[in-house]
Each structure stands twice: as structure tokens, then as C-alpha cells.
Amino acid sequence: MIPHNAVITEVIQQTPTITTLKTDIKLEALPGQFVMVWVRGLDEVPMALSHPDSITVQRVGEATVALSGMRVGDSIGIRGPFGNGFQLKGTRIMLIAGGVGGAPLLPLALLAHAKRLDVTTIIGARTGNELLFEQPFSQSGSVSVATDDGSKGYHGFVTGLMDRFDLESFDQFYVCGPELMMKNVLNMLQVKGIEMRSQLSLHRYFKCGIGVCGACTIDPSGQRVCKDGPVFQADMLIYSELGKYHRDATGKKIVY
Amino acid sequence: MIPHNAVITEVIQQTPTITTLKTDIKLEALPGQFVMVWVRGLDEVPMALSHPDSITVQRVGEATVALSGMRVGDSIGIRGPFGNGFQLKGTRIMLIAGGVGGAPLLPLALLAHAKRLDVTTIIGARTGNELLFEQPFSQSGSVSVATDDGSKGYHGFVTGLMDRFDLESFDQFYVCGPELMMKNVLNMLQVKGIEMRSQLSLHRYFKCGIGVCGACTIDPSGQRVCKDGPVFQADMLIYSELGKYHRDATGKKIVY
Amino acid sequence: MTRTDLFTELTGLALENPTILAAGVLGTTGSSLRRMADSGAGAVVTKSIGIEPNPGHRNPTMFKLECGFLNAMGLPNPSYKEFRNELGIAKESGVPVIASVFGAHPDEFSQIIAGLDGADAYELNVSCPHAGRYGTAVGTDPVLVEEITRAAKHAASVPVWVKLTPNVTDIVGIGEAAQKGGADAVVAINTLRGMAIDIHSGYPILGNRFGGLSGPAIHPVAVKCVYDLYQVLEIPVIGVGGIANYQDAVEMMMAGARAVQIGSAVHDSITVFNEVTAGLAQYLEDKSMVLDDIIGLAHRKVGL
Amino acid sequence: MTRTDLFTELTGLALENPTILAAGVLGTTGSSLRRMADSGAGAVVTKSIGIEPNPGHRNPTMFKLECGFLNAMGLPNPSYKEFRNELGIAKESGVPVIASVFGAHPDEFSQIIAGLDGADAYELNVSCPHAGRYGTAVGTDPVLVEEITRAAKHAASVPVWVKLTPNVTDIVGIGEAAQKGGADAVVAINTLRGMAIDIHSGYPILGNRFGGLSGPAIHPVAVKCVYDLYQVLEIPVIGVGGIANYQDAVEMMMAGARAVQIGSAVHDSITVFNEVTAGLAQYLEDKSMVLDDIIGLAHRKVGL
Ligand SMILES: Cc1cc2nc3c(=O)[nH]c(=O)nc-3n(C[C@H](O)[C@H](O)[C@H](O)COP(=O)(O)OP(=O)(O)OC[C@H]3O[C@@H](n4cnc5c(N)ncnc54)[C@H](O)[C@@H]3O)c2cc1C
Ligand SMILES: Cc1cc2nc3c(=O)[nH]c(=O)nc-3n(C[C@H](O)[C@H](O)[C@H](O)COP(=O)(O)OP(=O)(O)OC[C@H]3O[C@@H](n4cnc5c(N)ncnc54)[C@H](O)[C@@H]3O)c2cc1C
Ligand SMILES: Cc1cc2nc3c(=O)[nH]c(=O)nc-3n(C[C@H](O)[C@H](O)[C@H](O)COP(=O)(O)O)c2cc1C
Ligand SMILES: Cc1cc2nc3c(=O)[nH]c(=O)nc-3n(C[C@H](O)[C@H](O)[C@H](O)COP(=O)(O)O)c2cc1C
Ligand code: FES
Ligand code: FES
């Protein structure tokens, strides 16, 4: 598929570093699927769909700075949706979102709520004004927040906050956030022997985004994050490179 | 479409020069549609489907001699069905078949009969034992035959035989046979002012068979016999090259 | 926006719109060419015409693949003497009629052009990939292409276009040779060498064994060739290869084509010229642009 | 018929079946290569590896078209030093692992081969159409191809395959140069030059502007190249280009390929190797034939 032309219809400043771009292209996608977003003349980067017509971008480098500076009427190229997406399981679920990791989890929360599941969301951020989607998540169930600096909610990491819940009572955990956070969550679930109830959405360097080039494959399974993922169950990740290293655009390992 | 492999399952000698080949490939086709029949290593020629799984071949040159010599288990390549086919109209119809022209008309007779139309068939041939499909046509309605040499039925051309019918009482005429015969039939209908009730299936030299190369176009309309035809209504043919000339493989006009 | 906004001046010819029937497609007779003009082509190119009558290769001569078409017609034509009359009929259409001609050496091109007068332009087919000593056999040699072009220009009193083959290491070098020889435009591309084999029997399917690939499969190759030619040549580039809708045409023009030719797409729609023209007009209106804005736009976007 | 009837000896390597993972496709890491072997590939070729770490071109680097794929990865690789470890992991799979290598001149090829020891064979990428002074820049020059092949053969103690570009006037001439240089096999074809332009903006879509066309679109071109190479060369030809099912593989082998490589088709099915292998085995059983019967069959049918 060549990129669709998506014209930006609304720009929403979510946090000081995170912006949502609504476009005139609505994609039928599963929660957790992503699109390749082409900033013409610059780069193309993967982004989760935070809504069938929206992406939610955290400013980190050239492409995301350009995206964050876009205005209504500007346009981007969009290929997708790609990847597998999350699967709803059970009746009581917990979503754990770190930073911009809330983007793929929001549509999941909405879907789970529509299906009358019992949804608990834990949102973590560096600081209070960086908490993403606290209000929309709260429409689908209860929300607890954690900040590294304690400026809002629980002071500390999401894992500390999770400890306050009866984790065994949840049927499934959905996790997206910084890799080391995800690794910690997975470890914690593993300690309790319930790691198989988790689905984690990974980030790796994407080139093709469609499962051909091999840039995004993870060790030791050789699974492609862009096509077999980005969402994996714990079994694919426990004895994996997760939290140990990833690869840059050359294919070289970068240790965390 | 690349050619289907069609294995011959039955060979039926229809007349001294005409053979039906049944194959293991059954095509959903309209009566009057044709296929391109590939005799591997030799040539590919157009042939009407005389039945969804059959072609009926008159021996005239290299390819048709090879086809006529095929035995059960031999195979040919088949592309199609192509072209437009006949359209059933009205309740009382006449089919006029000259020589191997009976091939595309037979499935039409069967369909018309199944739809309870009143079918009259006129079959013409050079001589009695060259009359094609007399028996199968008679299962769909009445059949009259004409032979050039008078060895069976009416002595003379099909037009002479047609004269014995109340032609105005027919809603539609379906004609396939040698070009000059078709031209005569058309003239005769024209004299009676009912030429617009006729559908004629033309033969022209086909190369691509799919409406691209232009080998089979007729003057002055530029209609493609292989795609816009092979069946035409009288309006496309009255002021046309029909009966005057056709073109050979080089595109040169060959006057009749 | 009305049709006239698609008016295109091309090597001095006046085209109502920039879509042209490609050589060898529904161009065997005058009436077929006229029909294509009636279905919206801004100009029409004839079947490639040679000196002697030629029945072409044995059937199968063409078939559809999953993503395109293979053909090895083998340059069937009734000779230029016989074709003269068809040209006259084609010209009744009112649109420019371009005679495609082929030969093995410069003299043959001159002879045909002299004998087939009355065309509004000539297109030199030095690019057919399945025609023995014709076509690609000459079109891969820049020296020969230059000589042929010069001879044709000498023989013709109207514009001469040179149709290029993509089956070369460096299509731009061949385009430059044509330009040096005096070509008024280049046309890119002819078909790509290709073949298909019947797996039931092992026989190559085409009567000629191999042939030329056309249709959607070759569109990205054609766009790249046009892009490269536009970058270097001063004469106009006419884009052809896999154009089936207005989007394909816009893309080709953004690569640098001043006009486009359409061949295989008549398979799916005989009115493709009208469709492309209507789509193009609407596109320009929606974008508030004119044709000149899109021709070569891809070069301007990335900084030539 | 069991799988072992597909056993293929290829330049001295023992392949359980004649399907091979093509270079640059899911070949970035050892574990990815191992996964492809596990999904049925008879051998695997790595991503093309060079001397220095290279991030490749800017995104977009690849996308799907109606009938194929365009890519301009730009030979991303972590350098041969870094890749050595991946090669070791790939070899755990048990199938032959072929290291694809690229360079700008003979010495670079020698250096990489010497440094990247342990491969079961080397495939020289002299054919990437979008890699500046690498790839096609060298692969269109028969003298350079011969020299590079000779240097590689000198450096390697295992077979050397040379991967050819179709973007030349005469691929057979390049194949002959490789053979003269001592190649154990040629691999045909790499991608066709192509490009696509975004009609909404005028920008070329690929970060590199143009790239290589792969997938179904190029299959007939690849078949023709393999057919021509088989006719002239004495060394085996490995066929690649648009193979997605066993029919495509049979066709390629009838054109003359001793084995086939599969790249883009992993997009639709990661288990394409198993599927092709199963289909091929069934085909041979149905026809009571063995692999050797179909290799080059199209030549025997028409009388070579
Ligand atoms: C499946 C998936 C979904 C994502 N969803 C979101 C989202 O919803 N919102 C969001 O803000 N971010 C998301 N990201 C991360 C986002 O793609 C990167 O932040 C972005 O690519 C950075 O590009 P840059 O040019 O701004 O930064 P750069 O300065 O180019 O790079 C900064 C870092 O971003 C990452 N990055 C750069 N290019 C790529 C690439 N092509 N593929 C993957 N990572 C890259 C690398 O880790 C790099 O070190 C997602 C990533 C993946 C893989
Ligand atoms: C739409 C259509 C349907 C037909 N249906 C039948 C049918 O059901 N049964 C049947 O016996 N015949 C049919 N024909 C005629 C049949 O195609 C020719 O008899 C056959 O092509 C002769 O080939 P040959 O090699 O035996 O003869 P040749 O010696 O090659 O030629 C003899 C004559 O056959 C005709 N012919 C040859 N090649 C072609 C070609 N590629 N396309 C068209 N005509 C050709 C020409 O008039 C030629 O002069 C049909 C033709 C058309 C156009
Ligand atoms: C059936 C057929 C016949 C052709 N004959 C000629 C020809 O006679 N002369 C020529 O220059 N090109 C010929 N071509 C090439 C086309 O003019 C055109 O360059 C090519 O098909 C690519 O365009 P398309 O993809 O729109 O078909 C022929 C193509 C086809 C499909
Ligand atoms: C994403 C991608 C990356 C490629 N990288 C390389 C490469 O590094 N080296 C190489 O020789 N060929 C490379 N190729 C070419 C393939 O190996 C193969 O020759 C080509 O894609 C045609 O085969 P296919 O149609 O099966 O994909 C690449 C192709 C693709 C699609
Ligand atoms: S990014 Fe190419 S395979 Fe995942
Ligand atoms: S045979 Fe080619 S257009 Fe009819």
C-alpha cells in the first residue's frame, strides 16, 4: 500500500511533550495496531493509532518534532494499519501505560468498556503534567496514576502502584511503555506466576513496517515486531532480548 | 489469464471434418462466448464453446488438423471464456447455423429450451453428412436442414429454406456460419425490415483475443470482434465490411 | 474546469488533452484509431509499420498475467504502402495521428516515412523487445539511435519522437543520442523483456517464447525512466507504461512527462482516455493547479 | 513422495530442498535467519554485509504496490565484524548459510569474505539498484564483475555465487564475466530499478527517491533472465524474482534454475518455503518426475 494522504483536522496538545493529531482518514484497526507515518521529505516512523483517525506523538527527535509542529490543514502520509494488535481476554483486565505507551492502550480501554469488561488502568509518567489520557481512560474504568517525581498520584514506578492491587484477580494485563518499565512489569508478574496473562506492545526500529526487511526482529525467536507483533504474549518475551538490548538502524545491538 | 491445462476426456467425430473434444475443464460461459485454444508448440486459435467443457473443431489447417487428431489424455491450453455471447430476447427464436457455426449456437438452443422459448433451428452444410448437431438441436425445438448438394433436406442455401417460414413471426434470429451466408441472411432480413432482430457471430483473425492488439477490429466502427463481439446486432454490421472483406494476420484486407 | 484546461502543446502538435493511444494497441486500422480518438484520446499512435507485410509471430501472441500482460506480436503490419489508406481514415478523427515506424537501419526509417506521408508526427520504434533485428536490436546502441533519428528527421517534415526501451543499462544515454540526432521528443518506455512458461507442459507460452511485459507491473520502472530522462534531456518526455487511471497519469507527469500514452489499460476499459482525462481535470481543479504545475514536480520537491 | 526427493546439490552444498531465503529479506539477525530455516528454507542468504556499519537510507524504505514492492533499504548492515556473531547463530539452524557481501571494488569483497569466515558460501551483491557506488554501479561492468569474482574466489574457501542485476542491456554478458571470474553459480535477479511518486504532494515516496522493484511484477522478467543465462552458462543458475508459490518455482526451474530464492513473498506468508516445497513435491509426484526433469525443460521443449 502506498501512503494515504491524511490531512490534519485537529491538533490537541496532551502534555508538554505529547500531541494528538486528528486526521481526515479513519482506519478500521484493532487496538494496538500501528501505522507508518510519513513526514514528507524527512522520515517515516511507526505510531500507534490512539483512535481510528488519530495518532498521539511524543516529541523525541526530528520526525516527532516535525509532527508535533503540524497544524490543521497540513498533511502526512499514512500506511497501515499494520501489526497484530491486542486481544481481549477474560472479564477483568488491567492496562499499564507508561508515557506515550497510553496511545495504543486507549482504544483497547474503549473497546473493553464497550464490551462491559472491568477495566483498571495504571498510568505512569515522569511527572504529573506528562500523564497521558488520564481523563479518557477514566471513562472506561478506574484509573490510578504514578509519577517518578511524585508530583501526582503514587510516587514511584508503576510496578510499585501495581503492588497495591490483588494482581491475581485480573485475567489479563496489557502493557505499553518504556522497555525497562515493561521488563519490570513482566518480572513482577513472573514472580507471581501470572506472566502468561500479559500482552506487551514492543518498540523496535522499523524500516519496512510490513514484515519483510528484518530490521525489527527480536532474539532469539526471530519474531518480527512489525508483523508478528507489536503485541506479544509473555512466552515470546521472557527469555528474549527484552530489556537487554535492541538494535539500531544498522542492525547493531544497543544494550539498555 | 495464462492458459488452463485442459485434458481431453472424450473425442466425438461429428462429421467427416468436424470433431468435438470434451475436456476436464468446465467453463461458466454465456452461449456464443469463445476460448483461445493453444495447441502447444504450434498455434493458438479461437473456438466457440459448444458445451461448457467442449469445443467442436472443423479441420481446415494446421491447428485444426492437430486438434482433430487429439486423443483422450492429450491436453491443450485454454484461455477464456472471452467475448460477449448471445442475448436471449423474445419468446420465439430462430437459429441459423452454417457448417461449424452450429458450435456456438448449440448452447444457446439448450438455454432457450430450458427457458421454454420456442426454438426453430435451420442447419446448413455443404452435404448431408456434414450437417452438425442435427440431433442435439432437435431436442430443443424443430430443426430444418439445407444442403448445398441436396443430399439431405432442402437443396440449396439456408436462405432458401428460411423463405419457407413466416420470418416476421420470430422475435430474434441468431446466426453463425460462413461470412457470405451470414451476409445473405442479413440481407434477407433487411429486405423484410426485421434485420434489427438479428444477432450474428463473426469470425475474424484473432491474435490477443482480449481486446488489446487490434487485429480483429472491423470497419468502419472499429469494434473488436474478440471483445465487443463476436456477437453483433445488425446495426453494427449493416454498413460494415461484413461480406466485403476481412483482414489477414498482417492487417491487410482480403476481399471476399 | 473544462476540458480545454488540459490542452497540451507537444512538439508543436495541439492536443486537446495529454493522453495518447500507445503504439501497437488498437492501432491496426484507421477505424480502430478513429474509435480511440472518439473515446477521448488526445492523439493516437498507429501500430508500428515496416517496409514489407509481416504476419508477426505465431499465437499465442498476448495474454494477461496476474499483474500485467506479456506480448510478442512480432510487429505484424501490412507494410507502409498498404497502411497509407488507414492513416487517412485515422486522420478523419481530427486528433493528431502519429505513425509509429520500425526498421533495421536508418534508410529503412527514411523510406517508410517518405512513403507514409500525412502523419502528424512519426514515432521511431527502436525498442520492441521481441522483434529480432528490429526494435531493441537497434535501440540499445546509442550510435545507431542517433543515426536513425537524424535520418528520420531528414525524411520528415513533421516532428519525430523516439520511443526508448527500458532494457538497457542506461536509458538516459540512449535518450541523449536521440536528442543529439534531432528528436523532438522521447517516449518512454516500451515493454520490458519477459517470458512465461506453462508448467503443465514446459512450453514457453508465447509463440515467440519470450516477449514484452506491459501493464501495471512496469509502471514503477517507467516512472523511474521518465524521471531520469527528464532530469537530463531538454526535449519533452512522453511517459508510457502501466497507466490505467488518472493517478498513474499524474504520477508520470510529476516524474516529468509532458504527456502520457496508454496501451494495455484498454483491456479493462476502452474509455480509459475519457476516464483519465476527467480524473486529471478534477484533480487539477481540486488542487487549483494547471498541468504545468505537475509536470516534473517530483524534481522540484527534492531539489533537482 | 517424501521431502528427500527434493534434495538439491548446489555448488557442492547439500540442500534439503531447492528453496532459499533471498538476500536482504529477514536476514538481519542470526535468529531471524534461523527462523526462516525452521520455516522450511533449504538454505538462507544473509542481508548484504559491508565493511562499515551503515544505517541505510531514510524511511520510507519499503512499501507494497498493487503488484509488487518498492524498496530502497540502502544496504543497512552493522559491518562484517559485528555480523560475525549473527552468522554463527544462523548456522545453528543446520541449513547452509550463504553470506551476501557487497563492496565497491575487489579488495573490499576479499576483506569482508576473509573477515566473515564460516559461511557455507558467499553471494556477491553486485546488483543492488539503489546503493550509490555499490551494487549496480559495479554489476553493470563485466570487467569489474570478473575481477571481483576472481578476488572473492581467491579469498574464499567455499563456493562463490554472483548475484546479477537485470538493469543491464545484456545480463548474459555479465553472467559470462562472473563465470570467467570463477563463480560457482549466478543468482538472477536482483530488483528492477523503479520509483513511485506521491500524487498528493509530488514527493518521491522512497526516502532515496528511487529503489528496486520486487515481487510478482518482476517474475516474468526474472524468468526470461534465467532462461537466457541457462542457455549460455555452464555454471548453475539460481532463480529469484516474484516467486510466491510452487507454480512460480516450477516455472523458474523450467526456465533453467537449479534452485530458487524467495524474498518478498514472506510478506504474505512466513511459511512460504514450506508451502512451495510441499507443492513442488506434490507436483513432481503427480507428474512422476524428479527435479532434474523440470530444470531447463522449457529449453528442451522448443529445441535448444
Ligand atoms: C509499534 C510502534 C508504535 C509506536 N507508537 C508511538 C506512538 O503512538 N506515539 C509516539 O510518540 N511514538 C510511538 N513510537 C515511537 C516512535 O516511532 C519514535 O518515537 C519515533 O520514530 C522517533 O522518531 P524521531 O525522528 O522523532 O526521532 P529520532 O531522533 O530519529 O530517534 C529517536 C529514537 O526514536 C526511535 N526511532 C526512530 N526512528 C524509528 C523508526 N523508524 N522505528 C522505530 N523507532 C524509531 C529510536 O529508538 C530512536 O533512537 C512507536 C514505535 C513503534 C515501534
Ligand atoms: C470467435 C471465433 C469462434 C470460432 N469458433 C470455431 C469453432 O467453434 N469451431 C471451429 O472449427 N472453428 C472456429 N473458429 C474458426 C477457427 O478459429 C479457425 O478455423 C482456425 O483458427 C483455423 O486454424 P488452422 O491453423 O487450422 O488454419 P490455418 O491454415 O492457420 O488458417 C485457415 C483459416 O482459419 C482462420 N484462422 C487461422 N488462424 C486464426 C486465428 N488465430 N483467429 C481466427 N481465425 C484464424 C483464417 O481465416 C485462416 O485463413 C472460430 C473463429 C472465431 C474468430
Ligand atoms: C499488444 C501490444 C502491442 C504493442 N505493439 C507495439 C508496437 O507495435 N510498437 C511500439 O512501439 N510499441 C508497442 N507496444 C508497446 C506499447 O506501446 C507500450 O509502450 C507498452 O505496452 C507499455 O505501455 P502500457 O503498459 O500502457 O501497455 C505494444 C504493446 C502491446 C501490449
Ligand atoms: C527489502 C528487501 C531488501 C533486499 N536486500 C537485498 C540485499 O541486501 N542484497 C541483495 O543482493 N538483494 C537484496 N534484495 C533483493 C532480493 O534478494 C531479491 O533479489 C529481489 O527482491 C527479488 O526477489 P523477490 O521478488 O522474491 O523479492 C532485497 C529485496 C528486498 C525486497
Ligand atoms: S520493519 Fe521490516 S520486518 Fe519489521
Ligand atoms: S484479437 Fe486482439 S483485439 Fe481482438
Key traits:
heterotetramer, A: 256 residues, alpha/beta, Elongation Factor Tu (Ef-tu), domain 3, Rossmann fold, seven-stranded mixed beta sheet, six-stranded antiparallel beta barrel, C: 304 residues, TIM Barrel, eight-stranded parallel β-barrel, four-stranded antiparallel beta sheet, 14 strands, 36% helix, binds flavin-adenine dinucleotide, binds flavin mononucleotide, binds FE2/S2 (inorganic) cluster
Describe this structure in words.
The complex is a heterotetramer, with 2 copies of chain A (256 residues) and 2 copies of chain C (304 residues). Chain A has 256 residues and is an alpha/beta fold. Chain A has 6 helices and 15 strands. Chain A is 18% helix and 34% strand. In chain A, the strands form 3 sheets. Chain A has a 7-stranded mixed β-sheet, with helices on both faces. Chain A has a 6-stranded antiparallel β-barrel with strand order 1-2-5-4-3-6. Chain A has a two-stranded antiparallel ribbon with strand order 14-15. In chain A, β11, α5 and β12 form a beta-alpha-beta unit. Chain C is globular and about 50 Å long. The longest helix of chain C has 16 residues, at 272-287. Chain C has an 8-stranded parallel beta barrel, surrounded by 8 helices. In chain C, strands 5-6-12-11 form a 4-stranded antiparallel β-sheet, with no helix packed on it. Chain C has 304 residues and is an alpha/beta fold. Chain C contains 11 helices and 14 strands. At the B-C interface, β4 and β6 of B face α1, β5 and α2 of C.
